Amino acid sequence: MRKVTLEINGKKVEKEVQDNTLLSTFLRDYLNLTGTHIGCDTSQCGACVVHVNGNSLKSCTALAADIDGSKVTTIEGLATNGKMHPMQEAFKKLHGLQCGFCTPGMVMSAVDLLQKNKKPSDTEIRDWLEGNICRCTGYQNIVAAVKEAATKM
Amino acid sequence: MKDFNYHSAKDSKEASKLSSSNSAFLAGGMTTIPSMKLGLASYKDLIDIKNIKKLSGIKVSGKSVTIGATTKHVEVANSKEVKKAIPSLANLAEGIGDPQVRNRGTIGGSVANNDPSADYPSACIALNATIHTNDRKIEASKFFKGMFETALKKGELIEAIEFQIPEKSSYQKHPNPASRYAVVGVYVAKHKKDINVAVTGAKPCVYNDRDLSKALSNSFSSSSIQNMELDSSEMNSDIHASAEYRASLVVTQAKKAVDAC
C-alpha cells in the first residue's frame, strides 16, 4: 500500500492504493468516477482515455502509483457550471454516439487533439482517433462532431 | 494483475541496485503493464525509471542523434532537431501505435523489449546505433539477439540510444491495421561507407538484409531490387500474413523506402 496525491478534475485527492492499482480502477472504484469506461482492458479500445498533465492516456494501462503528483482530468471534469464542454455539445448535436460506451474516451481523446491541432483535417481526426474504437456509429458523425467542436473551441 | 512492489528510482544507480532476478524496469509500461495484466509476465518488483531526469531528452551533434531512454515517442515525433537531422526517425515515431501510446511509450522500452514487430529496433540497425547502458556501450548489430531477447544483462539499464546521422534514409512499413505494429517494416539508410536495410516484422528478430543492401550498394535505386525474391523459409507466418507474403512485402517496402530517400 502507498499513499498517492493527485489533482483530479481540479480537486486534490489523497488515497491509499495498492501498488498494482490501475488508474482506471482508482478512478472508478476508489473515486466513483464511473464516466471513465473499461472496454477491452487491454489498451486497444480507448474507452478509458483520460488526461494526465494535459495529455491523453489510456487509464487501464497506467498505475495509480506511477502518476502520483499528476493532474488528471476525466470526462466528469469537462463541463463547467453544469454547461457541457463544446466537444460534448457537438457529439450530442451531431449524433456522434449511439450506445455511448466509447463516448467518454472519444471525447477526451478528441479534446486532446484540438489542444494540439486547432483545425484538424478529416484525415488528421481519423488518424488521431486510431486508438478509440466505436462499434456503433461508423465514425462519420464522430468526425463531424470533432470538426464542429473545432469551430467552437 | 498479480501483486508487486512499485519503486520509483531517483537515478540509474538506485534502479540497478533495486533490480533482482524477479524485477523489471518500468518506463512507459505500454508492453509491461498489458503483459502483466494478461498474466504473460509477473514480477516481484517494478522499478519505475520515469523520474530519472538524466534518462530523458534529445541531443544532436554533427554526426549523431542521442535520445534518452525514457524519451517518449511523441517527443521524438515532434522534435525539430530530430526532424532536421534524421527525418525518417521522427516519421517512424509518429507511426507507432496511437496517440495515447505515443504519449506514454518510450524508445528505451521499445528497444529493450525487442518485439519482433516493433519499429525502433529497425532504426537502431539501419542507423548504426550504439545502445548506452549504465554499464557499457553496445553496438546495435550485437544487441538484438532473438525474439524478445537482447544483449542486456539482468539489472542492466538502457540510458540512451545514439543514432548515426545517415546521408539519406526512409522507414516504410505495412502496419497491422488494428495495432499499428509492423507486419513488415523496412528502414533503409545510406551512410557514407555502407547501406543498411533493416527489416522488422518479417522474422523472429529484426535483421539487416544483406541481399538487399548488396544490390543497393551497386546501384542505389529501387529498380536494382525490383525483381528480387527473398528466402521466406525463416520468415514469420501467422493469421496476418504468410511467410511468402512477408518476403514479398520486404522487397515492396524496401523499394518504397529507396524511392522516398
Helical content of chain A stands at 25-40%
What would the average pLDDT of chain A be, to the nearest integer?
Answer: 96
Strand order, sheet with most strands of chain B: 4-5-10-6-7
| Integer average pLDDT of chain B | 96
The ordered string of helix (H) and strand (E) elements of chain A is EEHEEEHHHH
Strand percentage of chain B, roughly?
A: 15-25%
* Main structural class of chain B: alpha+beta
**Unreliable parts of chain A:** none
State the total count of DSSP E strands of chain B: 14
What features would you describe in this structure?
The complex is a heterodimer of chains A (153) and B (261). Chain A has 5 helices and 5 strands. Chain A is α+β, with helices and mostly antiparallel strands. Chain A folds into 2 domains: 76 residues, Beta-grasp domain (Ubiquitin-like (UB roll)), CATH 3.10.20.30; 67 residues, DNA polymerase, domain 1. A 5-stranded mixed beta sheet of chain A has the order 2-1-5-3-4, sandwiched between helices. The longest helix of chain A is centred in the C-terminal third of the chain and has 14 residues. The N and C termini of chain A lie far apart (41 Å). Chain B has 261 residues and is an alpha+beta fold. Chain B has 2 domains: 160 residues, Uridine Diphospho-n-acetylenolpyruvylglucosamine Reductase, domain 3 (2-Layer Sandwich); 93 residues, CO dehydrogenase flavoprotein, C-terminal domain (Enolase-like, domain 1, 2-Layer Sandwich), CATH 3.30.390.50. In chain B, the strands form 4 sheets. In chain B, strands 4-5-10-6-7 form a 5-stranded antiparallel beta sheet. Chain B has a 4-stranded antiparallel beta sheet with strand order 11-12-13-14, sandwiched between helices. Chain B has a 3-stranded parallel beta sheet with strand order 1-3-2, with no helix packed on it. The interface between A and B is medium-sized, with 27 and 28 residues.
